[in-house]
Description:
The protein is α/β, with parallel strands linked by helices. It contains 10 helices and 13 strands. The protein has 2 domains: 4-187, 3-Layer(aba) Sandwich (Rossmann fold), CATH 3.40.50; 193-315, Aspartate Aminotransferase, domain 1 (Alpha-Beta Complex). Strand 1, helix 1 (15-24) and strand 2 form a beta-alpha-beta unit. Helix 1 (15-24) packs parallel to helix 6 (164-188) and helix 7 (193-204) packs across helix 9. Bound molecules: 5-O-phosphono-beta-D-ribofuranosylamine. Its EC number is 2.1.2.2. Catalyzes the transfer of a formyl group from 10-formyltetrahydrofolate to 5-phospho-ribosyl-glycinamide (GAR), producing 5-phospho-ribosyl-N-formylglycinamide (FGAR) and tetrahydrofolate.
Amino acid sequence: MAKAKVGVLISGRGSNMAALLYAAKHPSCPYEIVLVAANDPQAAGLTLATAEGVPTFAHSHKGMKRAEFDRIIDAQLRAAGAEYVALAGYMRLLSPEFVAGWENRMLNIHPSLLPKYKGLDTHQKALDAGDSHAGCSVHVVTSELDDGPVLAQTEVAILPGDTADSLAARILIAEHQLYSRTLADFVTRERQPEWLLARVRERALALPQADEVTSHGMPCFGIEKGKKFAYFSQDHHGDGIVSVLVKTTAPEEQAMLIDSDPDRYYRPAYFGDGWVGIRLDLGDTDWDQIEDRLRKSWREVAPRKLLGLMDVADEF
Length: 316
Ligand code: GRF
């Protein structure tokens, strides 16, 4: 399977970047680092990345507007083919445009147990508060500083006599372990059945009077006490794929869809011509389209009364 392409942004030492980069050298690592970029041409991490054969880019942000600078970094990331961004000690606030352009594709590591101690001086804050544990968090980046959904954390015990420096040094060891693992999970989650099922479930159950049951061992969505409109299929009869099965709206539609994209659509065994399978494990699923197909499938089985309600809702 192709490795996910990650761009790393740094401002200084770059030890987390190094940890990501060394983890990426293992053949089983699901990501590769395609660019290390810095807002400070003197950032020490750049030398290491260059020595390891990773392309680098550096540009000082001094005297530039935030959005203007971010556009330069964004262009470099995209030119390098990055699909994800990992912030690793990147000491710049990001413009909303940049954050929006990498929505759900950008992670950060922060040296505290978020939501505690956002911003700077996190180690001293944990000591001052008399906490028994400090730690680090990896989170998805949103427009609020250090605020996006936390993906993983490691607790680090505070020792008697710890100073901010001694604590920071120990947390850094934990950071290096945590970041690469979390990034690896993050870039592969779009192929993980549990994550795919959660996304299908969220969309299917949002439809009027939809419920979930298990049928033939498959999570299956239908109208309460009525017909089924979607099945979540995972390695069904050993086919090795993850997909959603939905009803087609016309007899020819199944053939037409398969014809248009034979890698994605297929005729589900034992379901007949009225259904089509859509693979979800190709890594490029268009979730708006899945939502649309679920809705169409729901319409195929919904009783008239419900359909009328849906039509009224659609007008708004
Ligand atoms: C790390 O403590 C990281 O959690 C924080 O900035 C520091 C960067 O260190 N965001 P390095 O440049 O990765 O060595």
